[in-house]
Amino acid sequence: MDHGDGDQRLRKGDRIALLTSGGDAPGMNTGLRAAAKVGAALGLEVLGVEEGYKGLIEGRFRTLEPRALDDAARRGGTLIGTARSKLFMTEEGRARAREEILKARLRGLVVLGGNGSLTGARALDGTLCHDGSPLRVVGLPASIDNDLGCTAMAIGVDTAMNTIMEACDRIADTALAHQRVFIVEVMGRDCGYLAMTAGIATGADAVLFREGGKSDEQIVDQVMRAVEAAFARAAGRRHVLVIKSEGVSFDSGKLKEAVDARIAGRFDTDTRVTVLGHVVRGGSPTAFDRLLASRLANVAVRALFEGQTQVMAGWTAPHTGRPSRAPSRHDPHVTLWPLEEVLAETAKMHSGDSEVVKWRVKALSEAEAVLYT
Fold it and tell me: Among 11, 48, 116, 130, which one has the highest count of C-beta atoms within 10 angstroms of its own C-beta?
């Protein structure tokens, strides 16, 4: 369909595609369903891209069946698959992706994913459609680590937190029965948000996260303070729960050995390690994640339809020291942020320079001060 001289808005009959990339997150399927339904209501033809940017390079587009989307929306993972593509990081890979976009006659692309996925979306800036107009690209934040800038929550975070909380509650039962120290490692390579929030939710005795900047010795000292507070008093707590983010460089097994060496001869207890790993990624999305994914997708697709591009739909973005933006007219809790700004703020979060991360560390430090009283 030819729109003449650069009309930015999409029209009925135009074709868009949905793509999930990087690590999967509970709620991605819900976001796909909402995006497909909103697109259909606006008169757009909506396709799915199989296996992320890898599938985009290979031109693997598929029709999205409404019934399949309805069934998948209640499950974790992603119906259309996801993959990390090293080829897309090259100019050759992006050139091949642009060729497939032209052949498929796409006018818009919705990307669900984390930092790498949105970086890929940013790299498509300047891509032209078959009619000579620019390809419209919008992003949805989906990452269980909650490590994306310009959004207070990402799709999948709430489900992951609930999974960790349930697992820790179960572990606490056996820890209490045996009077043990349990170190529970959770996901969070570049961001300790899951460990931080799960630590508060579960009443953990110690929380270890990369942003704390502690040395191995300081980490052992922190765990031992928790052990001493629990076991040194006759009426004290008879078990210890330590939550550790995978981003902490001190290996969990070596941490156990160091703690056991300090415990030996002092307390009648020992240490166990549980690595939750990819268990945290799976499971049916919570009600909040389903609502979040649906509302973000609604705003994202409508923004695409209205001709906006290179933006991400963020959920009530936290204060970051910058002037805020007006919320979308379609949802007072969703704001559209330029991808360039999102990625810049995300880089600050990973380096620890973000005001949001500084607040998180401060809040956890204050919470830690009352753990041993």
Answer: 48
Which residue's entry shows tokens 């939550």? 243
Averaged pLDDT, 295-308: 97
- What is the C-alpha R_g of the chain? 23
| CA dist 213 → 104, 187, 218, 221 (Å) | 48, 17, 9, 14
Domains detected in the chain:
15-156+285-350 (3.40.50.450), 158-282 (3.40.50.460)
- The pLDDT assigned to 371 comes to 55
pLDDT at 175: 82
pLDDT in tens, 170-214: 998 888 888 889 999 999 988 999 999 999 999 899 999 999 889
Task: Catalytic residue, from 24, 145, 147, 289: name it.
Answer: 145
Q: pLDDT tens digit string along 311-362?
A: 999 998 655 555 478 899 999 999 999 999 999 999 999 988 888 888 888 8
Query: Annotated catalytic, 145?
Result: yes
Percentage of the chain surpassing pLDDT 70? 93
* Distance set, CA 18 to CA 112, 129, 149 (Å): 8, 16, 22
